[in-house]
Hints:
The chain is built from 25 helices and seven strands. By secondary structure, the chain is mostly helical. A seven-stranded mixed beta sheet has the order 1-4-3-2-5-6-7, sandwiched between helices.
Amino acid sequence: MDQGELFRGVFMLVGAAAVGGALAHYLRLPVIIGYLAAGVVIGPYAPGDFGDPDRLELIAEFGVAFLMFALGVQFSLRELAHVRGLAVAGGSAQILFTMALGLPVGHALGLDVGEAVYLGALMALSSTMVALKILESRGELETLHGRAAVGLLIVQDVAVVPLMILLPAATGADDGGLLAVAEAAGKAALLLVAAYLLGTRLVPWLLFKVAATNSRELFVLAIVALAVGFAVGSSFLGLSVAFGAFLAGLIVSESEFSYRTLAEVLPLRDVFATIFFVAMGMLIDPGFILDHADQVALIAAALLVAKLVIIIAVVEAAGLRGRTAVMTAGVLAQAGEFSFILARVGMDEGVIDASLNSAFLGAAMVSIILNPILLRLAPALLRALQMIPYSGPLFAEPVHAYIGDDAEGLRRHVVICGHGDSGKELAEAVMRRGFRCLVVELNPYIISDLRRREVPCVYGDASQSEVLKQCHLDTAQVLAVTVPELVAAQLTVTNARAINPRLDIIARAGGPESHAALKRAGAAEVVHPEFEGGMEFVRHALRSYGVDGIQIASALARRRIDYYQR
Length: 566
């Protein structure tokens, strides 16, 4: 292949990614689907000549390296410690159970044990990119199930590293068994020691010297050389290039240059990651998928249904019941970008073949496309689970009230639904003034803290009437609904208004549409945190120009009237 052919191939790859991503965005699908579909269109199994796939896949290896390098830079043991037991214990259990799920699925597909376990590992990982996008679009990133899903995703992302090292050795065709695993672990330990020595002695000094030149180009070249250098060293030891790149990022994450490095590497990561996804799409054989639609359907069903059941069980076991468990599982019931990286490592090591890779990639595309639909069906699924005679109690929403000895004296109190940032500020302000408040929260960790501080609280879902009946709404002064999820807020307002038609209700909204919906549900006042934050920026900016305080207040008042009336 001459240079002209190589550049023509890269141009087709990048151009197809741009078109595919734009079409996916227009169709409101995850952009990963557009990149994979673009790879199918220009791949060797489609009509036409778009260049040598093997040469283009070498370029895609940079995508893997930069994805893992960015993961290493962002990784923090302190952040992982804050995720608590659900993520660490629950995430580990979910990965192990899903890997075990690969055995019956692999048996049905006619795979050997090694391939089946590897397939289970591919199914165990969910897409951080897709899950966060869904949660953000629904305004649920700060909800309890949103935080639970993010915690599990962090553990899955971290688990990619040991899976890349140990799985190929344990399930490989060379049948090395424990000896192969021990050898791979020894090589990884050797690389870790080298990374520690370099990370504590040489790399911080080197980055400081480069940063002191005030040359952005030199700094970018230094971090790229670091990522590629560790990737080469990892490959030299017989490990994956992705593991070496992750270690390089881990070294930088503990230095004072982590934020600058992340800012510089993210554009490179996004470009090369896009190329990687297109290259993975080029490996998909549409003819094979059509001829083996039953295999693709089986893997997709395992991702969407069996994985859903596993995550529900894990979250329930961690003490998060009912709606939180079902919604968390709905967010994570798909395959992810690190599944593709792990699949690539498996192909390079000869653990899985091209046919299994094509079947999995096809199923992964199906799971990512159907995941938003599955999430919309989650409330109906919860109601169905609650109606099952024996398992129904497991999915009933928990209701535990801690009001103290003075339950009869709980009058003219503020009921706060949700103890996030807004709810916490309100509770502290009310108690400082000597008024009573009662907090409704679904997070058991927050409930434990409130009980320790002897703050009246109810553990349950505020959108349920049975929970609100424990809050003495008939004698309450104000109900503040601070939960960010619109559907839950609407149900809370509606049910509270039915219990006490004269109650003063304040609700949190995310935009003009939610404002109208909450007003119809019965809220007396609707607060928009993003809009109110914008007003504070306006106030500060006008004050810095010397605008009189009365004029600022008048301008803000007029703007609030315009916004809320609209």
